[in-house]
């Protein structure tokens, strides 16, 4: 019986996303917290793309312990009211006025806490844009301008966060300082390679390892000019130690990729987890994995067919065009060029949060026919779309988008290559 590679790919990808759902990751951690502290009353703050589901799980597991809380998540990611919580939706990948309004409400809620108080802080990817308050002397416009330039420059997430931590009143450990002397218990759903806790959501409640000097070097590296007031803000150093915080990582790309590996093996594929730290340009990753596909297809190297190669990470896009897309779609489009005309190959690349860049797609899924479908449907070669950073419209023309809607989790991207017999 011939394999349905596309169906298998989607099943493997879905298993990875499902394993990262917060009821499976955060729930057990909060049960341990409750066993440790008993009937403790707390404030709960949840930020990021998975904030709503994290807050919902916290409310259910802690069973009356939360006296009040705030959720700050991306537009369209709230699923309704949660008792005890004020729910805000705000801008991503760039902050907006709602980001500021919601963050000010959080600060108002924690600023009068004492040494006997506790804050449960639920953090997921996307929190950098959603949880924001500029340092005194700066405006939201200043933050947006710098963030937009960094997004388009090709800077990786660590470089991006190094700069914006030094422009923010809540990032880089400064939120924990605002909560002091209350204790902050942070539970992190990591979307950062290596689970660097000072980088996830720009580390609001974790000592910052980056420095002002490093922030200036990032801007210099990408040729980004700054005003004197931004230069002054960047010169103010973030806290390098915090006395009132403890942190636990409850979900990560490693878990998602290991689940994908297990599912691929169950489906009968010779499988390997190649890396969980894919960080190069998206189009280069697509080109490389296309080359791997050709090697497996022709020579059964590095795996015999049927083969599954799994990668996790977060690639970057250097924006030089005017099109629409995201890093996963650009990776998939690039791979479609490398495998055009070949049979028995499928590549899928998705953001586990369900949103890839400023689009409604989670990513893309391509095979040897995708190239020709794009060409026939649009009259343009995929290379033209790739050059214009217009992967969304190229893949849409070939029915090659993966659209999941918000998944309620966020642990980086999963890339899957399948090569059939």
Write the layout of secondary structure elements.
Layout: H1 5-19, H2 22-37, E1 42-47, H3 51-62, E2 66-74, E3 85-90, H4 97-110, E4 118-124, H5 127-130, H6 140-153, H7 157-165, H8 174-179, E5 183-189, H9 212-221, H10 228-234, E6 245-251, H11 253-266, E7 270-278, H12 282-299, E8 307-313, H13 327-338, E9 345-351, E10 363-367, H14 370-378, H15 382-387, H16 391-397, E11 401-402, E12 413-419
Parallel strand pairs: 1-2, 1-4, 2-3, 4-5, 5-6, 7-8
Antiparallel strand pairs: 8-12, 9-10, 9-12, 10-11
Strand content: 15-25%
Mean pLDDT: 95
Helix content: 40-55%
CATH topology of the largest domain: Rossmann fold
What is the domain tally? 2
Alpha carbon gyration radius: 22 Å
CATH-defined architecture of the largest domain: 3-Layer(aba) Sandwich
Q: Give unreliable regions as ranges.
A: none
Features:
421 residues, alpha/beta, Rossmann fold, 2 domains, six-stranded parallel β-sheet, six-stranded mixed β-sheet, globular
Task: Please characterize this protein's 3D structure.
The protein is of the alpha/beta class and 421 residues long. The chain folds into two domains: 179 residues, 3-Layer(aba) Sandwich (glycerate kinase, domain 1); 213 residues, Glycerate kinase, MOFRL-like N-terminal domain (Rossmann fold, 3-Layer(aba) Sandwich). It contains 16 helices and twelve strands. Strands 3-2-1-4-5-6 form a six-stranded parallel sheet, with helices on both faces. α2 crosses α3. It is globular, with a radius of gyration of 22 Å. The protein starts with a helix and ends with a strand. The model has no long low-confidence stretch (mean pLDDT 95).
């Amino acid at each position: 019986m011939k394999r349905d590679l596309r169906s298998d790919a989607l099943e493997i990808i879905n298993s990875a996303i499902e394993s990262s759902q917060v009821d499976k990751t955060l729930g057990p951690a909060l049960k341990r917290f409750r066993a440790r502290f008993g009937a403790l009353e707390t404030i709960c703050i949840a930020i990021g793309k998975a904030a709503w589901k994290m807050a919902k799980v916290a409310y259910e597991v802690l069973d009356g312990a939360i006296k009040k809380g705030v959720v700050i998540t991306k537009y369209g990611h709230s699923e309704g009211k949660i008792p005890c919580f004020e729910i805000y939706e705000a801008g991503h990948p760039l902050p907006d006025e709602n980001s500021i309004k919601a963050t000010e409400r959080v600060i108002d809620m924690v600023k009068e806490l004492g040494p006997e108080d506790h804050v449960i802080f639920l953090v997921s990817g996307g929190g950098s844009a959603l949880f924001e308050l500029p340092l005194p002397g700066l405006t939201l416009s200043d933050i947006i301008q710098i963030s937009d330039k960094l997004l388009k420059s090709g800077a990786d997430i660590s470089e991006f966060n190094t700069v914006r931590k030094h422009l923010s009143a809540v990032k880089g450990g400064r939120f924990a300082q605002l909560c002091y002397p209350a204790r902050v218990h942070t539970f992190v759903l990591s979307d950062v390679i290596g689970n660097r806790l000072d980088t996830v959501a720009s580390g609001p409640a974790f000592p910052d390892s980056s420095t002002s000097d490093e922030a200036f070097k990032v801007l210099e590296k990408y040729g980004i000019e700054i005003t004197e007031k931004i230069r002054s803000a960047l010169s103010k150093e973030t806290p390098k130690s915090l006395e009132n915080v403890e942190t636990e990582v409850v979900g990560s790309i490693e878990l998602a990729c290991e689940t994908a590996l297990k599912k691929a093996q169950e489906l009968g594929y010779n499988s390997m987890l190649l890396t969980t730290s894919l960080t190069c340009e998206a189009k280069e990753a697509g080109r490389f994995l296309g080359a791997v596909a050709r090697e497996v297809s022709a020579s059964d190297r590095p795996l015999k067919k049927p083969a599954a190669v799994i990668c996790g990470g977060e690639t970057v896009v250097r924006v030089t065009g005017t099109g629409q897309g995201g890093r996963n779609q650009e990776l998939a489009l690039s791979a479609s060029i490398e495998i055009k005309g070949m049979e028995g190959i499928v590549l899928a690349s998705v953001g586990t949060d369900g949103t890839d860049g400023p689009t409604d797609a989670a990513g893309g899924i391509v095979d040897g026919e995708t190239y020709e479908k794009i060409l026939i449907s649009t009259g343009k070669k995929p290379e033209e779309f790739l050059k214009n950073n217009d992967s969304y419209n190229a893949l849409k023309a070939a029915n090659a988008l993966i659209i999941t809607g918000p998944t309620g989790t966020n642990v980086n991207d999963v890339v899957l290559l399948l090569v059939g017999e």
